[in-house]
Amino acid sequence: MADLQPDMPRTAEAGEDDAPPDAPPSLTTLPALPAPPARSLRQEEPRAPEPHTPGGVLLDQAHALLAAHPVADGYSGLPWALRQQPRYDLEQGEATIDTDLPRMREGHVGALFWSLHLHDGSGAGRATALTLEQLDHARSVIESHPDGLRLVRSAGQVIDARNCGRVSVVLGPAHATALDDSLGVLRILCALGLRVLTLTGTAWAGEGGLTRFGEEVVREMNRLGVLADVSGAPETTAERVFALSRTPVLCSRSAARALRPHPANLPDELLAALGAARGLCMVPLIAEQTGPTVQDVADHLDHVREVAGPESVALSGTYDSGVVHPRDLADASRYPHLIAELLRRGWSEPELALLTWGNVQRVLRSADFAARAAQHRRPDPL
């Protein structure tokens, strides 16, 4: 299968399952992951204290906060990146990628959404087969690292994995073209573990908004517990999904267009609508979308919190996706430096706990409850 994939460009630096879905996210302190082992790869010189962190005090506070409220990272390109490696061991560490278990422990990453997206032009006419190959590969990676990774399908399983010292892996987003306009394929992908689908690039979810079939896709996703992702979708489609979906909607890689006019970023009107629908804007660590510094990323997080509300903002590392990251956020170990900047700006511990962990848990719980409530409904025809 590897011969089907283009070379991956190296990135550069530039609660409980039974809680009611509308209950506020639990901020219960969770046990910390094991301390990161000594890094045998990429030995680095000691870093000077970060700007605005006298004596590293804020950085120490960030580590302590993340030990209790780890990062749920909304987008990782790791499955695709690993397909370019002839061999790898995520437990020992890999210098050629942005994400491995030592760096996730150092960065306090507790959960990852693993993208099943295909590179542009790579899946013409074969999107379903290639997505299945991506999904199969992702599952094999998880199975080969049982001491560090665990495949999860629900909010409760995320908590269980965390309590066992494992990083949870949520499969998705995948691209809507993988459905091949079939609800049956959606059900098969869900049975194999898919939990997030990006609603763009199809005739039924395009510039004209959702068609009647597109609306049936959203309803079936709600019944199955698959979350809708509208990053990059036209505003007409996103607004219709907000109105139709019985579960919160994700924007897995969207920042604030008011600060940076990138097409994937959201205007304030859409951010406000997302907040009203209790959806989640997952701000990406991409220099092109947010800017080249940690402070730029923090500006976007401030803005989304102000416009959409503190319960509608989360993080999307986008590591191993072939993008350029802001300075000091080059890999999955660097989340404490972003949290230290937010502490400097006056973010409270409850707000940061929502940002890193609680908001994602709320959305997953809501999807679980909506799926349970709809299980009596018969599946729609293919």
Automatic annotation (TrEMBL):
Gene Ontology MF annotations:
metallodipeptidase activity
The signal peptide annotation in the UniProt record is none
Which PROSITE patterns would you find in this protein's record?
Answer: RENAL_DIPEPTIDASE_2
Per the record, a Pfam family? Peptidase_M19
Where is composition skewed (Basic and acidic residues) in this entry? 41-50
Gene3D superfamilies linked to this entry: Metal-dependent hydrolases
Disordered as annotated region, ranges: 1-56
Can you supply a Gene Ontology BP term from the record?
Answer: proteolysis
In Swiss-Prot or TrEMBL terms, this protein is called: Dipeptidase
Q: What is the lineage of its organism?
A: Bacteria, Bacillati, Actinomycetota, Actinomycetes, Kitasatosporales
